[in-house]
Specification:
The chain has four helices and six strands. About 20% of the residues lie in helices and about 20% in strands. The termini are far apart. The longest helix is centred in the middle third of the chain and has 14 residues. It has one domain. By secondary structure, the chain is α/β, with parallel strands linked by helices.
C-alpha cells in the first residue's frame, strides 16, 4: 500500500495505511484479467495520489490489465470559460495514460478509459465541452459523471458539486 498524506475533509475520509495493512488476503485467481473500473488521480495540497501511487497499489499480485479514471475535480483549467475547466482534467489524465504507456510504471494500461465532467444542465451548450473532452482524451474519453446527490442536511452535501434540489 502506498503512503499518502492524510487529510480529513467533509467529503473524504483519510486513507489509513496502518488499518489496511492489518490483513493480507490470498489472491484467488491471479491469472484472471481485471479492469479497475473506478479510480482517481490528484495532486492537492496535503493530499496526493498520482501515477506512482496507483502503480504501487496495482502491483498487488492481481492481474490488473487496465484502469478507468473517473472525474474528481483534478487539474481543472485555471483559465478560460468556467464550463471548459473540467477539460483540463481530461488533458491531465490523458497525459498520465501516456506516461503509463511507457511501461515504466507497470504493464497495466493506466487510465485506458476516462470519465470526465461537464455540466449537463447547460443543455445544447454542453456540445462544445463534450467535443473538447473527446479531443483531449486521445481516444480514451468514455463519458460524463454528473453528480446529482442532494439532501436537506448540509452535512451530507459534497460542496464540490453545485446540485440543486429537484435535479
Amino acid at each position: 500500500m502506498s503512503s499518502r498524506c492524510q487529510v480529513v475533509s467533509a467529503t473524504h475520509f483519510p486513507v489509513r495505511d496502518e488499518w489496511l495493512s492489518q490483513t493480507s488476503e490470498e489472491i484467488l485467481e491471479p491469472d484472471l484479467p481485471i479492469i479497475d473500473p473506478h479510480h482517481h488521480i490528484w495532486d492537492r495540497p496535503n493530499w496526493r495520489y498520482m501515477i506512482d501511487d496507483i502503480a504501487q497499489d496495482l502491483a498487488s499480485g492481481h492481474n490488473i490489465i487496465a484502469t478507468v479514471f473517473v472525474q474528481c475535480h483534478s487539474m481543472h483549467r485555471a483559465n478560460g470559460p468556467e464550463e471548459m475547466a473540467p477539460v483540463g482534467e481530461t488533458e491531465f489524465v490523458n497525459g498520465v495514460a501516456a506516461i503509463g504507456a511507457s511501461g515504466l510504471y507497470g504493464k497495466q494500461r493506466l487510465c485506458a478509459g476516462i470519465v470526465g465532467h461537464a455540466n449537463l444542465t447547460l443543455g445544447k451548450a454542453v456540445k462544445p465541452i463534450l467535443e473538447a473532452h473527446i479531443q483531449a482524451g486521445g481516444g480514451r474519453f468514455r463519458g460524463i459523471r454528473h453528480i446529482t446527490a442532494w439532501d436537506d442536511d448540509d452535512r451530507l452535501i459534497n460542496k464540490s458539486y453545485s446540485v440543486k434540489k429537484g435535479l
